[in-house]
Amino acid sequence: MTDSNVWIVGGVQTDFARNAVRAGLDYGGLTAEVVEGTLAAAGIPAGEIGVVHVGNAFGEIFAGQGHLGAMPAAVAPELWEVPAIRHEAACASGSTAILAAVADLRSGAYDSALVVGVELEKTVPGDDASRNLGAAAWIGHEGQDAKFMWPYMFAAIADEYDRRYGLDDTHLHRIAEINFENASGNPLAQTRDWEIPKLSVDGGDDTVNPIVEGRLRRYDCSQITDGGAGLVLVNDAYLREHPSVSPIARLAGWGHRTVGLGLADKFARSADDPYVFPHVRNTVLDAFRRAQVEIDDVDGLETHDCFTISEYFAIDHFGLTPPGESWKAIDGGFIEIDGAFPINPSGGLIGGGHPVGATGVRMVLDAARQVSDTAGDCQVDGARTFATLNIGGSTSTTVSFVVTEAEID
């Protein structure tokens, strides 16, 4: 065993279908639920935690609550005086919290870390929530004509794909359909009990699937969600000191790239590149390099389908197809749960839900469940290596992780 491994000991996800505000939960109540559940799942007492990292994007905007790094200690007295930090990177907030924990553990500064991702979004009506989320764009510089910022911005990404390569919207409808189908088997998914139309047939029907912005329709969009997720991560030194602790997975590799806020700037910089977002491609390659894997070694992906087009570009940027040819993986059934490379067996953000600060943490937890054969009806047969791709804004922050079986030397 080297001294550079980071292990996932356990974690928890709340029920993303629950309206936490109606249930009487504020950020304190939600954080308490996640902290308690995560520590119980890991079998590690709070007193054994060396550092806490909290992912949250919009606490001040939706609930008037900042300083969420201190919330775990406020609701779990055993964490009093344990160092903690809140991380904000829009929809990638949870993944940046994990990255900080990984750095702490690999450096030896701490041997155990609690990572918590929490978000409350149902404190306001849905249209207001969508407008609030627009704060992660470059305000005053883009999207001035948008009613809803992010559908507007990702419709522009779909248009750019169409301009460069061609894009058939039926492939976007099929992505949504697959993710809703997968979510129906996930007992924590927001849409598990929804009645969803046959999008591969009626996805272009304005009555069944109305336009939201540009070419993007209702079912192309992820959900407004309350929820949280948590993980306990440890390093090799912790396992040596605690031989009874059995990790469920290893966090084998990571990639992290940040570029500017403006979407038009991204398009301009990639004008001569085969990839629309070369920095996303490089993030994935960084994670593969650190994990010492290639695409053929990976058994599936939990990706950031904030909109169907973001999963569409994840397909080619991950290397499943050449640039601009993501449609081939969709038509061939490649990304379905029983396909050669399942994507979002959990239901993703469209089917599973998207509490922004929790999403990156939830993705890694689901990847760990896959490689430990504990994913229930969402299980991908024979999964030993799973990846994640989490983006913030219009890919301004991109994080990818590779999670493998917990094979200890």
The H-and-E topology, N to C, reads as EHEHHEHEHHHHEEEHEHHEHHHHEE
**Which value, in Å, is the CA radius of gyration?**
20 Å
How many angstroms separate the termini? Answer: 5 Å
Total number of β-strand segments? 11
Taking strands numbered 1, 2, ... along the chain, how are they ordered across the largest sheet? 3-2-4-7-1-8-11-10-9
Indicate the mean pLDDT.
97
Strand content: 15-25%
Helix residue percentage: 25-40%
Sheet of most strands: 9 strands, mixed
Q: Specify the structural class.
A: alpha/beta
Number of distinct helices: 15
Could you walk me through the main structural features you see in this protein, from its secondary elements to its overall organization?
By secondary structure, the chain is of the alpha/beta class. It contains 15 helices and 11 strands. The chain has a 9-stranded mixed β-sheet, with helices on both faces. Helix 4 crosses helix 15 and helix 7 packs across helix 12. The termini are close together.
Features:
single chain, 409 residues, alpha/beta, two-stranded antiparallel sheet, 15 helices
List the helices and strands and how they pair.
Blueprint: E1 6-13, H1 27-42, E2 51-55, H2 59-63, H3 71-75, E3 84-87, H4 93-107, E4 112-119, H5 126-133, H6 149-165, H7 169-183, H8 199-202, E5 211-213, E6 216-217, E7 227-235, H9 236-241, E8 249-258, H10 263-269, H11 278-291, E9 301-303, H12 308-317, H13 327-331, H14 348-352, H15 356-371, E10 385-392, E11 397-404
Parallel strand pairs: 2-3, 2-4, 9-10
Antiparallel strand pairs: 1-7, 1-8, 4-7, 5-6, 8-11, 10-11
Helix pairs in contact: 4-15, 7-12
